[in-house]
Amino acid sequence: MTQHPDSVGLMKALYAQGPQDLEDGPYLSTGINDAFINYRHMFPELISYRGGLFVEANFDKTTVDEMFDMARFGGGASAVADAEAQINSIGLCAEAVEAGDLAAAQASAEAIGWVWKRWIKETYDVEIEVVAHIGDEDSWVTFRSAGAG
Fold first, then answer.
1. Quick one: which of 4, 8, 70, 139 could link to 105 by a disulfide (CB 3.0–4.6 Å)?
2. For position 21, what pLDDT does the model report?
């Protein structure tokens, strides 16, 4: 069976060598509300504005307008990509970063990106580019419209 390259990357990230004490637990071991919050991150409602695609829960028209104005672009591709990346960003695994477990943050970024690409293409018929930063100080993942930057 042939797997899509994105799926292969996701599986490598999720099942990489890691802490030996990490065991599969109950699906909702942290609580139903935490799971629900995660689902909202994975399957965001989006709105289109000034050529960009934004997570509705994070969207603020004034902020986006100010970002375009500060970029001194009339809504060009670079300004759109910058605004999308800023507005659509979510922080990852603060406790994993604090513990120095960057593999957990990387696996989270891979999983979220994998879902976002498919969810947004299927639901909104838009191709996106996922960008992640995994570091000692902070880790985040975001997306922007493909070809916007």
1. 139
2. 47
Separation between Cα atoms, residue 110 and residue 7, nearest integer Å? 9
Question: Based on the number of CB atoms within 10 Å of its own CB, is 59 exposed (0-12), middle (13-18) or buried (19 or more)?
Answer: middle
Q: What CA–CA distance (Å, rounded) separates 149 from 147?
A: 6
CA geometry: angle 124, 108, 61, nearest 5 deg: 45
pLDDT of residue 62: 93
Residue 55 has pLDDT above 50, yes or no: yes
Buried b (16+ CB within 10 A) or exposed e, 3-31: eeeeeeebeebeeeeeeeeeeeeeeeeee
Q: Where are the beta strands (DSSP E) in the chain?
A: 46-49, 52-55, 90-91, 128-134, 139-145
Strand partners, 52: 49
Q: Residue 23 contacts by C-beta under 8 Å, 6 or more apart in sequence? A: none
Token pair for 97: 């970063």
In angstroms and rounded to an integer, the radius of gyration of the C-alpha atoms of the chain is: 17
Place of tokens 């498919």: 118
Tokens at 37, concatenated: 């919050």
d(CA 88, CA 93): 17
| 91 pLDDT more than 90 | no
- For residues 75 and 51, the answer to whether their CB atoms sit within 8 Å is yes
